[in-house]
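Can anyone check this?
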Amino acid sequence: MAVSSGNDGSGVAAAPFRVLGPLEVSGELGAVSVAPGRQEIVLGALVLELNRVVETTRLVDVIWAHDPPKTARAQVQICISRLRKALSNGGIDATIETRAGGYILRAPADATDVGTFRRLVTEAHALARDGMKMPAVDALRSALSLWRGRCLAGVPSEVLAGTAAQWDESRLEAVETCMRLLLELGRHEHLIGELMQLVADHPLRERLRGHLMVALYRSGRQAEALDAYHQGRAMLTEELGLDPGRELRDLAQAILTDDADLAPVEPAEPAGQRSPVATPLSEAVQESGADPDPAVTPRQLPADIGDLVADDTIVSAVCDAVTEGQEKGQLNVVLVLGRPGVGKSTLARHVAHRLTTEYPDGQLYCDLRGPGGQPVAPAQALGRFLRALGVPGQAIPDALDERAEMYRSLLAGRRILVLLDDAVSESQVMPLLPGTGSSGVLVTSRCRLTALPGTRRFDLEPLRPEQAMQLLGRIIGEHRVESEREAARVVIRLVGGLPLALRIIGARLAARPHWSLTSMRHRLENEHRRLDELAHGELSIRASLSLSYDGLTAADRRLLCLLSLAEGTEIPSWLGAALTGDRTPHPADLLEPLIDRRLLDITAMDQGGGFRCGLSQIVRMFVHERLPAEIPEAERAGAVRRMVGGWMALAEAAHKELHGGAYTLVAGRGGRWHPPEDHVQRCLRDPLGWLESEQTNLLNAVELAARSGLDELCWELATTLVTLFEARGHPELWERTHQIALTAVQEAGNERGRAAVLGSLGTLHLFRGEHEAARPYLSTALEIFERLGELSGQALCLRDLARIERHHGEDDRALALYESAERNFVRAQDVIGRAYVLGEMAHITMRRADFVRTRSYLDEALGICRSAGFDRGQALALRRLGHMLMYQQRYESAERTLLEVLAMVGASGDLVGEGYVLHDLGRVNAHLRRVEQAVRYYSRSARIRERILDHSGAAAVRADIVAILGRAMTPVG
């Protein structure tokens, strides 16, 4: 890709991103290579929307206009990843950030040539309005010098070509404006050659042909001017069957009659003067003889709200976006989005009132939801608008398309702001759009309305705590809020900062001065009555949510109700399919309608590459009310069973990935629901990290299983999560989940589950160093497992009972128990369980200085773990080898081995293992008399062990620190 640097010769510095021609990118290190095809298309789309979110669906559309593959989203993510790398390597001052539903290219405003072009054209128009025509021409010439060909020439995208064509049109408009200004400055003789070339390149542009005719006429070449007209007329007739427009015909007539108005005299041009624009009416109006009153200026806006609290930057951005289209003469639609009650309408009305001076010809307003929540038909809205514009009722046509034509004709050339509140669909809005860019359009909706062309979208979020405090203060008085700030904070949290809810609360408190914020807090804390409390007069959260809920399909209502059964704060994309029992390969698609209507919010991207959703407390309570009416109890039970089964399947897959198989587990018989395989594989790229990231959802699943009578799944999931609890040091979660599971299996009379949970609780006590407390749990579990003939369970209990004996120095009894455990692991075909036991037996033989047997045990354990791909087992065996080397006083070799182990546990995120190995390295360095290095290792170990609540282990490490520092300070001799 050829790239220039510095500036373009016009004094305008070359932008890093250039799309006014073939796509080019350059940075501090020179040209940046962007792969042709998909990457070029994605970057082009992001550059054209610099500092604005481009939705993933939009990127899919610009790459594959008609039939995107199933992997389209994944391929877009790959393109984004590669573009990020290319920009970073090229030293570009820009980043591509992930946003809910899409991506945004963050860079300075002057980072694109299209942004510089827009700025220079805007400056030129402002200069021309102030009578400074030559500086305006200079600005336009600088803007036009940025162009190197057609916008995004060579980028293979049909959809993007449409957007690029708009910029090509803007270029020609700038050329026409520049020519007009130069003619007004009397430069006609110097323009003839340039205009001839422009007309040859664009023979159907009547305005350019008109400028050529004027330049020829003023240069004394009247016949050539008329010939230029006749050539254009012949071409239009031959190619299109049309005559030239009225403006060009009138100009030809003026040249033919030597009209004095064509004399090259520069007219005075007061600032702000606008040429009158003809606005022809439709034939229906003309035939009726009832023309609209041209003096009618509609003022339909509802009253502005004086206590509005909003982010000033958002308000300013929306205002700027609405007026942006005027300068370019292009229709600009601005869409304000948000969940029910977030304040879309309030903000839009405020913006509309701020812009009344920008739109002096009037403001039109329609609530498109209508009375009772029924959508207003476009024809009905147009009838209201036409009457407001002065059209008598008998002159308004019946047909929708005729009404739309009349409406567009009346708005042509007039500066009118159209506010469409609470739009339901694109088909409702499209007929209400003006035909020219002189008017502005502001729309609010709960849906994204992605099919609306040329739309700028602004997503409103609930108020931040301090903004919410400010709103409450404006409604009930700042002194009441200040006197009960903590209660106010709780109230705000309970309603999620939703402005409508806060207005209702404020109205109720204002009407009852004797009520306190604390009393309102207590009322709202009752979840069963919270929605009842959020109603006052005609304001109601329940009514607001009902509009969105009732507009859903039956399937989407059912899914939303089922999602309320998921108790986590975040919902992974596969969960909707599990709840409904849908086996679609793309389960995230089920959630899209709820996201579009802002009943679900995208909160993050998960480790598997899919999005995560949030269900606000208010929405959750609302749909939970409707759950019994929407879904029978048996279906709800099935949904819970599939959801818990899905978590179980994923946790089990993570355990297998970490251990090389279903080893060191007592297998249960709970039903599984398997998410799509591609999602599972993405999660398993970092299984321990996935378990940690989903910790809250997994814990909730254990509790939900217990409450729902799913005792088998409850104990299976709890014991499987020991993989996470042990590696990341969460003994409190280990105990909490197992006590819940123990209660569930005891109530259900599930002996197998009871033994599994008791055995795991015994392991927990050993993890905490509470050896004698572990014995009764393990003994009881072993007795049940022996009665049931459960080999894996017996082996695990025998292994842990051996650890107790080893701790008490009863090595012979420990070895006997370990040998029994090994036999059971072999019979159960649990190779990893056997590897654990071999490592423990090596510890005993090492203490007996039987290093040959020790090495034999460790080599066999290490081989097993490597074959299974069990990294943690390899680390354990290598750590034992390091201990053996320390026993042999081979400290340098021990240090090398332990450093290898430290790298392994660090890479896997095994905090428990890291704490132990750091302690070992401290001891090695103490033996080598490296006091400072030993203290550093000890200190790191102590911090980790405190973090994982291993207080006895941390105390042992600190004792070693005291000991080594004491020896270091003891004088010699």
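Reply from J.R.: I decoded it. Confidence is low (pLDDT under 50) at residues 1-10, 266-295, 969-973.
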